[in-house]
Write a structure and sequence with these properties.
The chain is an alpha+beta fold and about 280 residues long. The chain contains 7 helices and 11 strands. The chain has a 7-stranded mixed β-sheet, with helices on both faces. A two-stranded antiparallel ribbon has the order 2-3. Bound molecules: adenosine-5'-triphosphate and magnesium ion. Magnesium ion binds near residues 210, 217 and 220.
């Protein structure tokens, strides 16, 4: 016999790694094994939570956001903080209209306003004004919350944190190399070197690249000139890369679920708080 559904659930809830297929000769043996796993895990989780308080460390995603921000500013990119609530017009300018697949993932606040599912629209919008002042090539980036309705999985959150950097007015001939160079620096900075760059076909941008780690998409990049640019009154070259911070933490820390890196009421520092 194997662990009961309740036991299985409880062990998962407290973050225990165990063999769910394990076979027991009797109920008694199973009960003993469950109790021991539960006790050990609770002890380990408590120790980790006490250490977290003592060390005064920030939540992983916040620490990562700070470090990526300093890194990109160090490369000369200008950091912006644009609104999280955006207008329907902005989505339409990204070609996400009522008939678009991504439209179903949007959280609407009313019939004209939504929570941003991505950073691109506001980055396009603010950059246009910045380009009147700053000389190209110009690097701009934002780190902040994005929202998408997702059918639950262990790699998707409905409320996640994106970093998106864009470089406007780059050299057309070398834009692929520039993207590779920036991606390499970015990946080096976050401390992940086992990545591959794959060509993808994005619903919003057409030809894009994906940065993939262990079969999981960590970031997507795109290039301009692009057909959408006209909607934003922009003419010229660009490159952009967007990455999910919780995905990065999940991959770096070897978490089995992105929930452990997410905004949460049940976890702190990737450790379950449901220990009672
Ligand atoms: P996926 O195919 O994994 O759903 P996507 O291609 O729809 O991702 P993009 O629009 O390319 O996502 O967003 C850029 C990055 O933001 C992704 O590579 C990923 O790291 C992160 N991301 C996107 N959606 C989510 C989500 N729901 N939860 C957590 N991170 C996400
Ligand atoms: Mg993508």
């Amino acid at each position: 016999m194997q662990f009961t559904q309740n036991q299985d659930q409880r062990l998962k809830e407290i973050g225990c790694s165990f063999d769910p297929e394990q076979d027991f000769a009797s109920e008694n043996e199973r009960e003993q094994a469950f109790k021991e796993l539960e006790r050990n895990q609770i002890e380990a989780a408590r120790a980790a939570l006490l250490k977290l308080r003592e060390s005064g460390q920030a939540p992983a995603v916040n620490a990562l956001a700070e470090s990526i921000s300093a890194f990109l500013r160090g490369l000369g990119f200008v950091e912006v903080t644009t609104p999280i609530m955006i207008s329907k017009v902005f989505l339409e300018r990204m070609s996400i209209d009522d008939s678009h697949a991504l439209n179903k993932q949007v959280f609407w606040l009313d019939d004209k306003t939504c929570l941003r599912p991505m950073l691109a629209p506001t980055l396009y919008d603010i950059s246009k004004r910045m380009l009147n002042i700053y000389k190209a090539p110009l690097g701009v980036f934002e780190i902040g919350p994005c929202f998408r309705k997702e059918s639950q999985g262990n790699k998707h959150l409905e409320n996640f944190t994106m970093v998106n950097f864009v470089e406007w007015g780059i050299d057309e001939e070398t834009k692929t190399e520039r993207m590779a160079e920036l991606t390499k620096k970015f990946m080096q900075h976050i401390g992940i070197d086992n990545y591959s760059i794959e060509k993808e076909d994005s619903v919003v941008y057409g030809d894009t690249i994906d940065v993939v780690v262990d079969g999981i998409e960590l970031a997507s990049g795109a290039f301009g000139p692009h057909p959408l640019d006209v909607n934003w009154d922009y003419e010229g070259t660009w490159l952009g890369l967007g990455a999910g911070l919780e995905r990065i933490v999940m991959l770096k820390d070897g978490l089995d679920s992105i929930q452990k890196a997410a905004r949460s009421l049940g976890y702190l520092g990737g450790v379950s708080l449901k220990l009672k």
